[in-house]
Amino acid sequence: MEDHLAQPPPDRAFKCNIGPEHEASAHCDTCAARHIGLCDAMIDADLSQLATVAHWCRIPKGHIFLAEGDPAQNFFNLNRGNAKLFKNLPDGRRQIVGFVAAGDFIGLAANNRYSFTAEALTDVRLCRFDRAELRALFMEFPILERRLLEAASRELVVAQAQMLLLGRKSAMERLATFLLNGTTSQGSRRNHTVVTLPMPRSDVADYLGLTIETVSRTLTTLKQRHVIEISCDYHISITDRLTLTNLAAGLS
Amino acid sequence: MEDHLAQPPPDRAFKCNIGPEHEASAHCDTCAARHIGLCDAMIDADLSQLATVAHWCRIPKGHIFLAEGDPAQNFFNLNRGNAKLFKNLPDGRRQIVGFVAAGDFIGLAANNRYSFTAEALTDVRLCRFDRAELRALFMEFPILERRLLEAASRELVVAQAQMLLLGRKSAMERLATFLLNGTTSQGSRRNHTVVTLPMPRSDVADYLGLTIETVSRTLTTLKQRHVIEISCDYHISITDRLTLTNLAAGLS
DNA sequence: CGCATACTTGAGCGAAATCAAGGCCTGTGG
DNA sequence: CCACAGGCCTTGATTTCGCTCAAGTATGCG
């Protein structure tokens, strides 16, 4: 009956990797320019100014680089790889609140302290921005703020769709929705679209508010109904998109 | 088996109330200045410029003033009253993604089209801003964008907490969390805090991803355990905050 | 080879949904 | 004034979907 709530997750010793000792060496100009999504807007501006506040770092797979409750000092832009963002309950239950891919920002949803923990799903490269320094830069390049506002708006839309999923959809509807979402970003041809999951079943379960057993059983059912095919655990091909779409909306 | 998804909700005829015919009459200077939360920041600026793009309107209780799927042309700041924001599934299942009170923005979570429907819980007064006009104003007052970014960040934090609730918490934990959240904004003294719910049980259920029966049963249990007292349906007083806090975290 | 990790499958259970009935309040109309 | 209808809430009985517990299988690695 002890209070686990305020405790940091177990294996965040790695956090030192984005501490001062690793970052003084190399500012990431290309990353800063390319991945903060401002190439076009700042084409005439002095990009070196942005580069001065951007520091790159690499996070190995499985490591936590940002913990719920920590002071929100940094702001990240994921450059390469995938990461998951999650919240925990004292007894270990976990909810993944989002997955991030290349180009995504991490830390928008932070005022004083981070509201979630971030863990690398693959080896990850990211740009770190000090929030205070970035804020100073906002003065000079207000367009920066606009981009972040747009990103936050998109995240809010996604979050609301996820609330509908978690609050009202059945296990089958959740899986169908999840699989379809995985295709939109990766060339959505009619049929035989391949969804690549960069995460194990346990993360799918924690994202959809289910258990791994239910995820597994539901995927098996979809397989038996010839809606999907599972080549290996991380590659699922959609063979009947129409049925999957109907299932996602709860129409069958 | 028809497609209800794209259809607007039934009773949004009222939307005309925020159409051109009602708004030419009175620009809401005080509202624009006071409620966009910029008094301090724009103290030296020409507030009339903001007022030129702000139009007030009144929405009677129960009416929908913004529908999921509609082009996101406007942006609102709620001035008085309460509203609920929700998403529907084709078969009628509903998820409330948020409640808004005085001072809150509506429409941050919109890129091209609104991602939810908004309905007045009480008589509502709000400021409407045309997004295009507002965007022009951003050029002059970049601080505006900063405020919106901060608001969006806060909303994201709340949304993520709600995902944890919907995905992983039990009915009792959901209700306890909900009641406690209701107190933070309204003077949270130790005990005997009164939570005023501006919405019926059905909305609580739709917000927490439960049925009205489960909400009712759970509240009854809390009453029987002397954790809360229900004077009337819309006024719940918390008599044992410690127990409620433990219940919210799943500790008992 | 043994072990660990991840996934699948089955049996049984339980929390919340569903179905159904009844109470309480408000407003309306005879 | 009462009768009645319609919301809204509560309570009870039953069902069900997904969870828990428990094997069992496949794959990768030292």
Explained architecture:
Two copies of one chain form a homodimer. The first copy, chain A, is built from nine helices and eleven strands. With 252 residues, chain A is an alpha+beta fold. A four-stranded antiparallel β-sheet of chain A has the order 1-8-3-6. In chain A, strands 2-7-4-5 form a four-stranded antiparallel β-sheet. Chain A has a three-stranded antiparallel β-sheet with strand order 9-11-10. In chain A, helix 4 (131-140) packs across helix 5 (142-168), helix 6 (171-184) crosses helix 9 and helix 7 (201-208) crosses helix 8. The longest helix of chain A is centred in the middle third of the chain and has 27 residues, at 142-168. The first copy, chain A, is elongated and about 55 Å long. The model of chain A is unreliable at 1-47 (pLDDT under 50). Chains A and B meet through strand 5 and helix 5 of A and strand 5 and helix 5 of B. The structure holds a DNA duplex (30 and 30 nucleotides).
Low-confidence stretches of chain A: 1-47
Sheet with the most strands: spatial strand order of chain A? 1-8-3-6
Count of runs of 4 or more consecutive helical residues of chain A: 9
Q: Helix/strand-derived class of chain A?
A: alpha+beta
Overall pLDDT of chain A:
81
Shape of chain A: elongated
Evaluate the radius of gyration of chain A: 20 Å
Strand composition percent of chain A: 15-25%
First-residue to last-residue Cα separation of chain A: 44 Å
| Helical content band of chain A | 25-40%
Oligomer: homodimer
Number of strands of chain A: 11
Major sheet characteristics of chain A: 4 strands, antiparallel
